[in-house]
Specification:
Helix content is 5%, strand content 37%. The chain is mainly beta. It has a 4-stranded antiparallel sheet with strand order 1-24-23-22, with no helix packed on it. Strands 2-3-4-5 form a 4-stranded antiparallel sheet, with no helix packed on it. Strands 6-7-8-9 form a 4-stranded antiparallel sheet, with no helix packed on it. Strand 18 and strand 19 form a beta hairpin.
Length: 348
């Protein structure tokens, strides 16, 4: 039995001990700022298609970036791949020749927008993508003698069909082409009477340059095919064209044997006589690079715009050279639908 006056003392003592224990007992430790672990692994990059990570850092420091001037874009709709090497001051005097692809019947060439090439195959009626590692993917089939190609910046591919003398387009992802225009000429399956071959893109006017081979007339065609105007007449069988930065148009007249310069107003000047010139492009030094399909020549040549300094870049391994591309480093790609190859000519 508890004595009177003792119980209140005991209760008070217990309460005091509990208060002391609560003050001295260890509690949970919290950090003033919670930290989320961050991976320090640096993602791998490639020269052609790698993209920077899209994660936005918590704090960024504004940086002033000076845009790099872009080269003229009149000669092609899809720019050549970006080359990190510094362009040499003068054209190369020799090239290292390698086989990029062997197979099918590659005809005209165009950039594919990812660093690879597109090529038409007249014999098989196809358009294919050729990666620079040599792998090929067929994109479109069932075409009537596909020849010249132009790829627009939005991915649209425009193709000239020689057998029907038509210009058609494939919208990005489309399986079937849209007819843009049937050219005036009436093609025949006879040498120098075939239909439309090479076409070019004028980036300044956003139009196509279309040599109508059967009629010997070079036209300017709107991208929707609705408007067509005459640029120059009087060619024998024009099959290729290129547009310089100043708007000058160069025309390869295959069966007339001439490479022509055309300025506004139908002012034509013969630059050079070159066997059977089929295609023409302009290299980084301003030279005209031309395929000569004449069987006794079967070559690729380069010359100055005034017609001087003609040099053969390659002849061996070729039978009927057709399409041409030149990148910003001066590397030349040439297709041959008889030798069934795409060659790469690297400046050495």
């Amino acid at each position: 039995m508890t004595k009177p006056g003792v119980l209140p003392a005991i209760v008070a003592a217990v309460a005091a001990l509990s208060l002391i224990g609560a003050c001295s007992a260890p509690g949970p430790v919290t950090s003033p700022t919670a930290t989320t672990p961050v991976s320090t692994t640096t993602p791998a990059t490639t020269n052609a298609t790698a993209r920077s990570p899209t994660t936005t850092p918590a704090t960024t420091t504004p940086t002033t970036v000076t845009p790099t001037p872009k080269p003229p874009t009149r000669t092609t709709s899809t720019p050549p791949p970006t080359i990190s090497a510094t362009l040499r001051p003068t054209p190369p005097t020799a090239y290292r020749i390698s086989v990029l692809f062997r197979g099918a019947h590659p005809d005209d060439l165009e950039w594919d927008g990812t660093g690879g090439l597109l090529f038409s195959d007249y014999t098989n009626g196809t358009i294919s993508r050729l990666a620079l590692d040599g792998t090929v993917q067929v994109l479109h089939r069932g075409l009537a003698g596909p020849e010249g190609l132009v790829r627009l910046a939005d991915g649209t591919v425009i193709v000239a069909s020689e057998l029907t003398n038509e210009i058609s387009s494939f919208a990005p992802g489309a399986a079937r082409p849209t007819l843009l225009r049937r050219m005036p000429g009436n093609p025949r399956p006879v040498t120098c009477q075939e239909g439309v071959d090479g076409i070019a893109y004028d980036g300044a006017t956003r139009t196509l340059i279309v040599p109508d081979a059967p009629t010997g007339v070079v036209y300017r065609l709107s991208l929707d095919g609705r408007k067509m105007t005459t640029i120059a007449t009087g060619f024998t069988h024009p099959t290729g064209a290129a547009v310089a930065a100043d708007g000058t148009i160069y025309v390869a007249d295959e069966c007339g044997g001439g490479l022509w310069r055309v300025r506004p107003g139908d002012v034509k000047t013969l630059v050079a006589t070159i066997g059977m010139p089929d295609d023409v492009v302009i290299d980084p030094w301003g030279r005209l690079v031309v395929t000569d399909v004449r069987l006794i020549h079967h070559r690729v040549v380069a010359l100055r715009p005034d017609g001087t300094g003609l040099t053969t870049l390659v002849s061996a391994r070729l039978i009927e050279p057709q399409g041409l591309l030149v990148d910003r480093a001066g590397t030349v790609y040439v297709s041959d639908d008889k030798a069934n190859v795409v060659l790469k000519l690297s400046p050495s």
